[in-house]
Amino acid sequence: MRSLLFLLVFVVKGMLAQQDNTHKTSSIYVPPKDPHVLAKLEQWQDLKFGILIHWGVYAVPGIIESWQLCSEEWINRPDGMSYEDYKKWYWNLSSVFNPVNFNPESWAKASKAAGMKYVVFTTKHHDGFNMFDTQQTDYKITNGPFKNHPKANVAKHVFEAYRNQDFMIGAYFSKPDWHSQDFWWDKYATPDRNANYDILKYPEKWKAYQDFTFNQIDELMHDYGAIDILWLDGGWVRPKETVNDEVRSWGAPIPEFSQEVDMPKIAQMAREAQPGIIFADRTVHGPFENYQTPERKVPEHKIDNPWETCMPLANNWGYVPNDTYKSTTKVIHSLVEVVAKGGNMLLGIGPKSDGTLPYEAVTKMEEIGNWLTANGAAIYGTRTVDHYQEDGIFFTSKDKTTYAIYLVKEGEKVPKTISWSINLPKKGSKLSLVANGNKIKYSVSNGKLTAQIPANLRNTNTAAIAFAFKQ
Ligand code: GLC
């Protein structure tokens, strides 16, 4: 009996642990057929490195984006305030959100210097606060203390600033909207992330939600210039037919009814307005998930279809004071591994409520940029090779060139020699260091290459993160 009970506790705990807000990756991928989409995906795959900006009212108190509004058990909710009072307090943050130092040009410049090539910006997160001048609701940045600022229509200016730096432009949009009465209806409690009424019983209400969603995306597609990616978050808002055992195993609560926002209709409108636009309808395997989006982790193996790991630079997506930042080395190593496995990396950064980027983020971005400026040839525009990894060395290729990238572990002394035995250069060809073009001495014996790392690099370059070799 006791051990049975133990087992039960264990199983329930395991189930709870699975329930969080990270999106998993489906094993199904449906390649798009539209040649414009395919061409854009190729272009996007060349870019490798982007920035995911989470910015909204949650930056004011510096808390997790949206999620504390949701009463699922795994969420760490604040003490001392009732759920309803908390919600009121949260929605009301809009009345004090006044980012007077908002300067998207400086964000775009810092991102470019970091080696990033595309941006995804939160036009609306799950909390339903709009960072653009939507006409579908008053809950928006253009309706609070910031409304008279020349750049009040924030998303528009973010997109413009990044376009001016030649970035590809992505609009993050949350399919769930917890502020909408047609999603979370005040008549009922809101026990979880899903619509809180029975859609089958109130079809006209859900229809109103579909129209609202369509109209918002329609505005983004028509009034905000050229958009390359529509990044749709909230994968649990999905047609019931797409819920299979794999989706169930991810642990998020799944309602009895279908939460279909009518993607075919949205997609048709979006592609008419923005030919070739890429849809990232996260985890909803099918025609609107043109690339997959594993979250906070690098997949174990190479994936042949287009994909992107999204990963926050700190622990949180949005700005949280005293957050823990990843080291520059960790970011570069993840990027190298992602690229060698065929993916892109979208690094998450959360601006502060006054509109500036956190100092720590800017510092890390500079360091990342320094490495990429020197070694970018081994990253941008590359594709995978069959055998892409040998221990801590990853391989990429471009045209007829193969790159070998040796990751120097944190705290490791740069070794005198580095060896590998796959993807060896053709006999007699030269090996050079990408960072400075210098030739590297090497020998091959018994199918193993040994490259000599010059003393000046070993001794002076104490901050070595990764060495890229061109062969
Ligand atoms: C998850 C979270 C969401 C966040 C997103 C970023 O989906 O639910 O809050 O915006 O990840 O990748």
UniProtKB/TrEMBL annotation:
Domain (Glycoside hydrolase family 29 N-terminal): residue spans on this chain: 18-376
Superkingdom field: Bacteria
Protein name: alpha-L-fucosidase
Family of the protein in this entry: Belongs to the glycosyl hydrolase 29 family.
EC numbers on record: 3.2.1.51
Residues annotated as site: May be important for catalysis: 310
Gene Ontology molecular function: alpha-L-fucosidase activity
One of the record's GO cellular component terms: lysosome
Function according to Swiss-Prot or TrEMBL: Alpha-L-fucosidase is responsible for hydrolyzing the alpha-1,6-linked fucose joined to the reducing-end N-acetylglucosamine of the carbohydrate moieties of glycoproteins.
Alphabetically ordered keywords of this record: Glycosidase, Hydrolase, Signal
Gene Ontology terms describing biological process: fucose metabolic process; glycoside catabolic process
Pfam families: Alpha_L_fucos
